[in-house]
Write a structure and sequence with these properties.
The chain is an all-beta fold and 117 residues long. 0% of the residues lie in helices and 52% in strands.
Length: 117
Protein backbone atom coordinates (compact mmCIF):
# COMPACT_ATOMS: atom_id res chain seq x y z
CA UNK A 1 0.00 0.00 0.00
CA UNK A 2 1.32 3.39 -0.95
CA UNK A 3 -0.20 6.83 -0.49
CA UNK A 4 1.52 9.88 -1.97
CA UNK A 5 0.28 13.39 -1.22
CA UNK A 6 0.92 16.44 -3.34
CA UNK A 7 -0.34 19.98 -3.81
CA UNK A 8 0.75 21.71 -0.63
CA UNK A 9 2.40 25.09 -0.55
CA UNK A 10 2.27 28.67 0.65
CA UNK A 11 -0.95 30.59 0.11
CA UNK A 12 -2.36 33.87 1.38
CA UNK A 13 -5.39 33.96 3.68
CA UNK A 14 -8.55 33.60 1.63
CA UNK A 15 -6.74 31.65 -1.05
CA UNK A 16 -7.22 28.10 -2.30
CA UNK A 17 -5.22 24.93 -2.67
CA UNK A 18 -6.03 21.47 -3.94
CA UNK A 19 -4.32 18.54 -2.28
CA UNK A 20 -4.12 15.19 -4.01
CA UNK A 21 -3.46 11.69 -2.74
CA UNK A 22 -2.39 9.04 -5.25
CA UNK A 23 -2.93 5.48 -4.04
CA UNK A 24 -1.52 2.14 -5.14
CA UNK A 25 -1.22 -1.41 -3.89
CA UNK A 26 -4.82 -2.04 -2.90
CA UNK A 27 -8.34 -2.08 -4.32
CA UNK A 28 -8.93 1.64 -4.01
CA UNK A 29 -12.70 1.64 -4.40
CA UNK A 30 -13.09 -0.68 -1.41
CA UNK A 31 -11.45 1.65 1.08
CA UNK A 32 -12.46 4.81 2.87
CA UNK A 33 -9.89 7.62 2.63
CA UNK A 34 -9.24 10.25 5.26
CA UNK A 35 -7.26 13.46 5.41
CA UNK A 36 -5.66 14.41 8.70
CA UNK A 37 -3.57 17.42 9.58
CA UNK A 38 -1.06 18.20 12.27
CA UNK A 39 0.02 21.69 13.22
CA UNK A 40 3.20 22.34 15.22
CA UNK A 41 2.70 21.47 18.88
CA UNK A 42 -0.75 20.02 18.27
CA UNK A 43 -2.19 16.56 17.92
CA UNK A 44 -3.08 15.13 14.56
CA UNK A 45 -6.74 15.82 13.77
CA UNK A 46 -9.19 14.40 11.27
CA UNK A 47 -10.14 16.92 8.61
CA UNK A 48 -12.30 15.01 6.15
CA UNK A 49 -13.27 11.47 5.18
CA UNK A 50 -14.87 9.82 2.18
CA UNK A 51 -16.30 6.34 1.73
CA UNK A 52 -14.88 3.79 -0.67
CA UNK A 53 -17.42 4.42 -3.41
CA UNK A 54 -17.09 8.14 -2.89
CA UNK A 55 -20.76 8.82 -2.18
CA UNK A 56 -20.51 9.96 1.43
CA UNK A 57 -18.25 12.51 3.06
CA UNK A 58 -17.69 13.92 6.53
CA UNK A 59 -15.86 17.05 7.56
CA UNK A 60 -14.50 18.57 10.73
CA UNK A 61 -16.59 21.53 11.88
CA UNK A 62 -13.61 23.81 11.40
CA UNK A 63 -13.52 23.16 7.63
CA UNK A 64 -17.18 22.62 6.74
CA UNK A 65 -18.27 24.80 3.88
CA UNK A 66 -14.67 25.54 2.88
CA UNK A 67 -13.17 22.14 2.09
CA UNK A 68 -14.50 19.57 -0.38
CA UNK A 69 -13.27 16.00 -0.61
CA UNK A 70 -13.85 13.87 -3.68
CA UNK A 71 -12.64 10.50 -4.89
CA UNK A 72 -11.67 9.41 -8.39
CA UNK A 73 -11.78 5.63 -8.27
CA UNK A 74 -10.89 5.37 -11.96
CA UNK A 75 -7.54 7.07 -11.26
CA UNK A 76 -6.98 5.75 -7.72
CA UNK A 77 -6.80 9.26 -6.35
CA UNK A 78 -8.55 11.51 -3.90
CA UNK A 79 -8.55 15.31 -3.85
CA UNK A 80 -9.11 17.83 -1.11
CA UNK A 81 -10.19 21.21 -2.44
CA UNK A 82 -9.48 23.85 0.19
CA UNK A 83 -11.02 27.29 -0.24
CA UNK A 84 -11.12 30.39 1.96
CA UNK A 85 -7.98 29.25 3.71
CA UNK A 86 -7.14 30.66 7.12
CA UNK A 87 -3.85 30.88 9.00
CA UNK A 88 -5.17 28.23 11.40
CA UNK A 89 -5.30 25.78 8.48
CA UNK A 90 -1.51 25.77 8.46
CA UNK A 91 -0.36 22.21 9.07
CA UNK A 92 1.11 19.12 7.50
CA UNK A 93 -1.72 17.27 5.77
CA UNK A 94 -1.72 13.48 5.62
CA UNK A 95 -3.68 11.01 3.54
CA UNK A 96 -4.80 7.87 5.36
CA UNK A 97 -6.54 4.59 4.75
CA UNK A 98 -7.26 1.74 7.11
CA UNK A 99 -7.25 -2.03 6.66
CA UNK A 100 -9.92 -3.65 8.77
CA UNK A 101 -8.24 -7.00 9.36
CA UNK A 102 -5.67 -7.39 10.54
CA UNK A 103 -6.17 -3.79 11.54
CA UNK A 104 -3.57 -1.37 10.25
CA UNK A 105 -3.39 2.29 9.29
CA UNK A 106 -1.51 3.42 6.21
CA UNK A 107 -0.18 6.97 5.87
CA UNK A 108 1.36 9.11 3.21
CA UNK A 109 4.45 11.19 3.85
CA UNK A 110 2.45 14.39 4.28
CA UNK A 111 2.37 17.71 2.47
CA UNK A 112 2.91 21.10 4.08
CA UNK A 113 0.23 23.76 3.81
CA UNK A 114 1.13 27.23 5.01
CA UNK A 115 -1.43 30.03 5.05
CA UNK A 116 0.25 33.35 5.64
CA UNK A 117 0.39 36.86 4.28
Amino acid sequence: VQLVESGGGLVQPGGSLRLSCAASGFTFSNYDIRWYRQAPGKERELVAAITGAGYSTNYADSVKGRFTLYKDNARNSVHLQMNSLKPEDTAVYYCNTRRSWPPRDYWGQGTQVTVSS
